[in-house]
Hints:
Layout: H1 3-10, H2 26-66, H3 71-76, H4 78-84, H5 97-112, H6 116-124, H7 130-140, H8 142-155, H9 162-169, H10 172-177, H11 193-196, H12 198-213, H13 227-237, H14 250-259, H15 268-275, H16 282-290, H17 298-303, E1 306-309, E2 312-315, H18 323-354, H19 357-368, H20 375-386, H21 391-398, H22 414-437, H23 442-450, H24 455-483, H25 487-492, H26 500-509, H27 514-538
Antiparallel strand pairs: 1-2
Helix pairs in contact: 2-27, 4-5, 6-7, 8-13, 12-13, 18-19, 18-22, 18-24, 20-22, 22-24, 23-24, 26-27
Amino acid sequence: MSDATAATHQETDAQGRLLAADGTPLKRSLARALRRQKLRALALIAPLLIFILVTFIAPIADMLFRSVENEIVADTLPRTVVALKEWEYASGEAPGEPVYAALARDMTIAAEYKEHTRLGSRLNYETTGISSLFRKSGRGVEDIGEFYQDQFEDLNEAWEEPETWARIFGSDAWLDAQAEEGAEATFSLRDGVAEAFPNTAEIYAAFAEFAQTEDEDNPFEEDPWPLAYAMLYEDLSGGAGVQGYSGPEADLLQEAAAAVGGFESQSYKAAFIDIDDDWADIEVWGTIKAYSPRFTSGYFLNSVDLQLTPEGIERQDEDQRIYGLLFKRTMFMSLVITISCILLAYPVAFLLANLPMRISNLLMILVLLPFWTSLLVRTSAWKVLLQQQGVINDVLVWIGLVDDANRLIMINNQFGTIVAMTHILLPFMILPMYSVMQTIPPSYVRAAKSLGATNWTAFWRVYFPQSVPGIGAGSILVFILAIGYYITPALVGGTTGTFISNRIAYHISSSLNWGLGAALGAILLAAVLILYWAYDKIVGIDNVKLG
């Protein structure tokens, strides 16, 4: 056997696979080396990747989630939502007593945590007036419990003492801890008390948790919520297992159980209607039920001038259909602004690309100058120029083109928005065009002319096609910036020149309807992606260049 043959045998294993120097199969060794190389590359870009995830991807994901998230109804009124499942809006009647009883418990807890106003504001987006209804009910729900509280306290003064309630419902371990730890000891229910008095134990446990976590007080020293008396009346009058209860204050409970038969009672339904007549309105209950799921399409429906009602999806009232108009206006005006920028930027970029470098650099400073000036200042300058008593109108009146009594209205309308935004976005069109045109060799045009082409033919057949990638890059940049602008339209657009972005900003910062603002933003994002896809199919995104 020759030396070469022996060397070959030493580099393969029994299966005939090539081996690396360390004896491992060559294929596995190469895969390991490539994996290490990819991990090193990933480590280099990891900071940028994390930055993009935190500042770009995560906010978009949160926006998309907020556009369908609707947990506030189910979290604030959990018992009411469950009770409402048996009620049908088509019945034409308000829900029964169990629903109002559940509402009393939920409203009491929500009012203590100040959650009822947030829920009212959320539902008020769908049905006007619910916000004030929930605020009023949060103040009046205590009256339901006080109706029974007075009767229990008249029966025995012991019911006025917080310690009475604490001894009945607090566990022995928690009661023993009061002497040493006080409010720091976490409250726990007494064994068996939840079975004997289920309704009261639930409300008292909620009260104790609130007192310790929110008020940082000791339930042993704080009066329970008035609703606890109403719940105790329900448990005792409903045949609660008082006989099986042998804990503290058993005699007091036996006395109360024997006396509740003579107590005056009230209907939860009548009590809520007494607080506000709107609680008898099936529209209110229909709205609560329609928006009780944790996820809703209501925000997206509102974004396209529809609404989710108890009877299904319906169109908004005619005077409230504004979003379809705003979307159409945004797309139309953004397109007009983009075309205006193309028409104005192309000759400027052509001039910059073909002038001597010394002059071109000087003129480029003028193009970049707007970037050194505040956007607010530039927009305000257009207000001065375009208003009826502004510079442009004054000049037109002075030269006699316009009568002083019929000055042109060029501000607070679509014209003012288009002019101001074209000026602001023009540099974003010039720079991509210039960078592409600068790479076009002048010899191409000279060669075309030497072959007999006229100036126009040489430009149109040779120069212009090579500049199209710059037009595409600038158009995408300007169009996307235009549809997202809201400062300039807000200042010079008036009522007819505002964009959908102005409405998004209003919902995010003023009305605080973040769900609707997120839905509008999601639709705008989808529209941009669709237009981007269409541009790629028609022009080809590979043809877009920045030079």
